[in-house]
Design a protein that fits this description.
The structure is a single chain. With 497 residues, the protein is α/β, with parallel strands linked by helices. The protein has 2 domains: 160 residues, Leucine Aminopeptidase, subunit E, domain 1, CATH 3.40.220; 311 residues, Zn peptidases (Aminopeptidase), CATH 3.40.630.10. It has 16 helices and 20 strands. The longest helix is centred in the middle third of the chain and has 26 residues. It is elongated. It starts with a strand and ends in a 5-residue tail after the last helix.
Length: 497
C-alpha cells in the first residue's frame, strides 16, 4: 500500500474515490460539502432530505462524477454526532468504508479530513481501514485465494499544510500498529498443524532477525533444567514438545529495567483428560492468542522504535489427552516450588503462566503484564465486550485502564478478594488449579498471584474478546487481535511506576 500526504484541493485529484469523513449534520453548511452538493446539482441536499445520508455513524453514500472534480466518485462516510467524535469514531468509519464496494474497486483514493487536525484521528483512520479490510486467504485456492480489492494507493488530505508532518507521522504509526494487530489475527487463525510450539518458536526467531531484537528458545531439556514443572505437566500429553520463548527488545539504555509481557501459548487446547465438548473445539487453535499478542507487540515496539526495554515470555505447548497426559488428581510442582493439585486439566493456561511469571523474576522487571485466553468464565463477566483485568498495583492497573480509553479496547477491573485466594488452596497440596465455576475469572487471577515476584503485575483475560462472533465496523467475524493496541499504548505512554 502506497501512502501519500497532501493539503491540495480535493477537486484536483485524479482518483477513483474521494472518501470524505462527515460529522452528522442537519443542514449543509460545510464549505466542502456545499461544493460537493453544487457539483452534483443538489444530490447531497436530496440525500439529506430523504435521510439517505445525514452523517450518522455507519452511513456510507456515494455521489458520482461531480462537476469540477477529477475523481470518479465522492464517498461520504458518517462520523456521528460532532460533539461525540473520538478517535474510535474515525476508526469505525474507516472500518465501514473499507468494505464498501465503491472504494474497493478504486485503484487510488483520497481520504479527506477537512478541518479535523487531531493526529489521533489520522492514526485511527488507517488502523480502521487495515483492520476492517483484513481477511485471511492463505489457505484458499483458485479465485478465492485472490484479494479482489483494487485499492493500492491512498492519499491523506487535510486543509492545513502546516499539519502535514504530523499527518504523515500519525498515519505511519497507525499503519504499523494496524499491521501489528492483523499479525495477531493471522497467528490466531493459523491451524494448529501449521503452528505447533516448535513452529511458533521458529516464527519468533524469524521475526527477531527481521526486526533486530533477540530471541532465545528453551527446548524440553532446558525447560526441565529450569524446573518448569507446571509447563511440563501440560505438555506431557502431546507428541509435540513444548518450547519457552524469550524475546528482548532494547529501546532504552541497557541499565533500565524491562517491562515484561507474558503471553499464553497453548497452540491447541483439547482440554487434556478433562476433554472439551466437540462443538467449536476447532476454535481452540486460537488458545495461543495471548502469545500472538505479545509477539506482535514486541515486533510493533521495535518497528516504532519505542524508547523502552521490553521482554516477552511465551510458554508454548499443546494440551492433549494421551496415556502420558497429566490426570485430574495428580500433583505437580511449579518452578517456584509450590505444589499444585490438578482438579481440571482444562485449566492449563494458568499452569504454564505460573512458570513464566516466576521466570520473569530473572529480568528484575519494572512491571509484568500477562495476557491470555484464560477463563471461559469471563464470558459471564463482560461477554464479548471487554476484557477483565486484575493485579497487585493500582498505578499499573490505572495505566492499563488509560490505555483502554485511548484505544477503545475495553477492560474492567475485577477484585482479588481473600475469598478467591482461599478457593485456590488445596487440602493436600499448596494450591488447586481450579476453584470451580463461581467467580472463575477472579479465582484464576488469585491463583496466578502465587507466582509473581516483588514486581507490579497486571493480568488481562482476553478469553472472549479474542473472537468476534458477528462482526463490527473494523473487526470482522473471527480473530480480533484485541490486546495489541492496548499494550502498545501502555508502552508508548510508559512512565516509571
Amino acid at each position: 500500500m502506497k501512502l501519500n500526504y497532501s493539503a491540495n484541493n480535493i477537486s484536483e485529484f485524479t482518483v477513483g474515490s474521494i472518501v470524505y469523513f462527515v460529522p452528522e449534520f442537519e443542514k449543509i453548511s460545510d464549505k466542502q460539502l456545499k461544493a460537493v452538493d453544487t457539483a452534483t446539482s443538489g444530490a447531497l441536499t436530496t440525500m439529506l432530505e430523504s435521510e439517505e445520508f445525514t452523517g450518522a455513524m455507519g452511513e456510507v453514500a456515494s455521489v458520482y462524477h461531480p462537476a469540477g472534480f477529477k475523481a470518479g466518485r465522492v464517498v461520504l462516510v458518517g462520523l456521528g454526532e460532532k460533539k461525540e467524535i473520538t478517535p474510535d469514531s474515525f476508526r469505525k468509519a474507516a472500518g465501514h468504508v473499507s468494505r464498501y464496494s465503491g472504494l474497493k474497486s478504486s485503484a487510488k483514493a483520497v481520504f479527506y479530513f477537512g478541518k479535523f487536525d487531531d493526529e489521533r484521528f489520522y492514526q485511527a483512520v488507517i488502523e480502521g481501514y487495515l483492520l476492517g479490510s483484513w481477511k485471511l486467504l492463505d489457505y484458499k485456492t483458485g479465485d478465492a485465494a485472490e484479494d479482489k480489492t483494487a485499492l493500492k494507493e491512498i492519499t491523506f488530505v487535510i486543509d492545513n499544510p502546516r499539519q502535514l508532518k504530523r499527518l504523515e507521522k500519525a498515519v505511519e504509526r497507525g499503519f504499523i500498529i494496524g499491521e501489528g494487530q492483523t499479525m495477531v489475527r493471522e497467528l490466531a487463525f493459523t491451524p494448529s498443524n501449521f503452528l505447533t510450539p516448535q513452529l511458533l518458536s521458529k516464527k519468533a526467531q524469524q521475526l527477531a532477525r527481521k526486526y533486530k531484537f533477540t530471541c532465545r528458545v528453551l527446548d524440553e531439556k532446558a525447560i526441565a533444567k529450569e524446573k518448569m514443572g507446571a509447563l511440563e505437566s501440560v505438555a506431557r500429553g502431546s507428541n509435540e514438545p513444548p518450547r519457552f520463548i524469550i524475546l528482548e527488545y532494547k529501546g532504552a539504555p541497557a541499565g533500565r529495567k524491562p517491562i515484561v509481557l507474558v503471553g499464553k501459548g497453548v497452540t491447541f487446547d483439547s482440554g487434556g483428560i478433562s476433554l472439551k465438548p466437540g462443538l467449536n473445539m476447532h476454535e481452540m487453535k486460537g488458545d495461543m492468542t495471548g502469545a500472538a499478542v505479545v509477539l506482535s507487540t514486541i515486533v510493533t515496539a521495535a518497528r516504532l522504535k519505542l524508547p523502552q526495554n521490553v521482554t516477552v515470555l511465551i510458554p508454548a505447548t499443546e494440551n492433549m489427552p494421551s496415556g502420558k497426559a497429566t490426570r485430574p488428581g495428580d500433583i505437580i510442582t511449579a518452578r517456584n516450588g509450590k505444589t499444585i493439585e490438578i482438579i481440571n486439566t482444562d485449566a492449563e493456561g494458568r499452569l504454564i503462566l505460573a512458570d513464566a511469571l516466576d521466570y520473569a523474576n530473572e529480568f528484575k522487571p519494572q512491571a509484568v503484564l500477562d495476557i491470555a485466553t484464560l477463563t471461559g468464565a469471563s464470558l459471564f463477566v463482560l461477554g464479548y465486550s471487554g476484557a477483565p483485568i486484575m493485579g497487585n498495583n493500582d498505578k499499573l492497573l490505572t495505566r492499563v485502564k488509560e490505555a483502554s480509553e485511548a484505544t477503545a479496547e475495553r477492560v474492567w477491573e475485577l477484585p482479588l478478594w481473600d475469598d478467591f485466594y482461599d478457593r485456590m488452596k488445596s487440602s493436600i497440596a499448596d494450591l488447586v488449579n481450579s476453584g470451580g465455576r463461581a467467580a472463575g475469572t477472579a479465582c484464576a487471577g488469585a491463583f496466578l498471584e502465587n507466582f509473581i515476584g516483588d514486581y507490579p503485575w497486571a493480568h488481562i483475560d482476553i478469553a472472549y474478546v479474542d473472537l468476534e462472533p458477528k462482526g463490527r465496523p473494523y473487526i470482522p467475524a473471527g480473530p480480533t487481535g484485541i490486546g495489541l493496541r492496548l499494550l502498545i499504548e501502555v508502552l508508548s505512554a510508559w512512565k516509571k511506576l
